[in-house]
Amino acid sequence: MKVVLVGFRGTGKTSVGRILANRLGVPFFDTDALVEQRAGMPIPEIFRRAGEAHFRALEREVVASLRTAEGVIGTGGGAVCDPANVAALRRHGTVYLLTAPPGVIHERIAGSDRPGLTDLPLEEEVRTLLSRRNEAYLGAADVCIETGRRTPAEVAGMILGQIRGESALSPDEQRERDTLLGKFGLETVREMIRRDPGLMVCGIAGNPCAHSRSPLLYNRLFQHFGMNYHYTRFEWPDAGTIVRLATLLALKGLSVTIPFKTDVMRHLDEVDEHAMAIGAANTVVRCGGRMYGHNTDWLGVRIPLAHRRGARAVVLGAGGAAAAAVYALCSLDMEVTVLARTADAARGLAERFNCRWGSLEEFKGADADVVIHATPVGMEPDTRSLLAADDLERGTTVFDLVYTPPETPLIRAAREAGCETIPGTEMFVHQAVEQFRLITGIAVTPELVREMLV
After folding, report:
1. Can you tell me which residues bind NADP(+) (predicted)?
2. CATH topology of domain 2-163
3. Which residue ranges in the chain fall short of pLDDT 70?
4. In principle, which of 11, 154, 158, 161 could form an S-S bond with 98, CB 3.0–4.6 Å?
């Protein structure tokens, strides 16, 4: 058994950890204490003599040494900001994020001899670092527990209950969950949860989403990192029902696809700046009963096109994927034109980003250095293409965001025309790298993702 406690200073990790370890009859490992043992001096002295970077290096060594440990592990406040630490802590363990309001944390740690990590007054430093670390905390955690109004013994009791498989759902909620899983055709998931109440669930939300390769990728990554997670499909006609089922499961994350990327946002508690600007969320992280929306699609477009900064670009389509593409291209200082079947749809998207617009019939290959296809045309089993080889100019970069099949009719036409081609699998790979980090706190490389997709 491996139980990991993470969170900011003053949230009770050490106190809760000692009680929990005692009740479970297992060792308690305090990473800060182990760092001090390794350095032969207290942490304030480490900071004074060698600085924070040296402390973090020692912390990384200590966390790595606990990769296969069994017991309760209490971590330093900034440990999970390093994805390598998260990967080590997550392996065959369950991670609990302990939280408390900034004012409570300030009261608890005031008078400590720990050096500040900023030049700010302590109360302001707490708020600043909490905001800066929030994404890392949420990603690294399996379960979030608020400790501000609970004693360490109460928090330890909550964790013990979860370890023993006690459900936080009422009998009526459990019946509703099981009924919805049956309606979704997820009887296998229902049985997995019954056999293993500690199983964490993730999935793709869409209609349709049977074509998605996300279940293959995520389940292989979960196995690779030793995580007790399962990734499934939530295919249903409306986003609200999917979100309701998500709230009844031990669900950590959702990948969101057609047609819910915009609709899902009204069900979320917080939405990040990129998803807000794009008007679509393709990633949902859930912790502590709250849902956080993100958009990683734009990075899936931006990264493969970084070499074409400042180019003239045409985006075909005006939906959620097109909005992410326009946002990415604008971040690369490209001159963007949006073309769609209806000029009004193109205009609506283009005006949000101060771009040119028009109808698909206005496409002229000579006017574009980069062409991004952001409609479902060409997605299996559709064999159509919006453009033919003679519509394109040699040397143009053509990026088709459709990734099933890997070689779409448009990609074949672009190759015939002598264009540089970027298949939709590249968008999928790069957005998945960021999505996996947001949901799990673990950094993966594009190479690992490609390997897992084979």
Report:
1. 273, 317-321, 401, 424
2. Rossmann fold (3.40.50)
3. none
4. 11
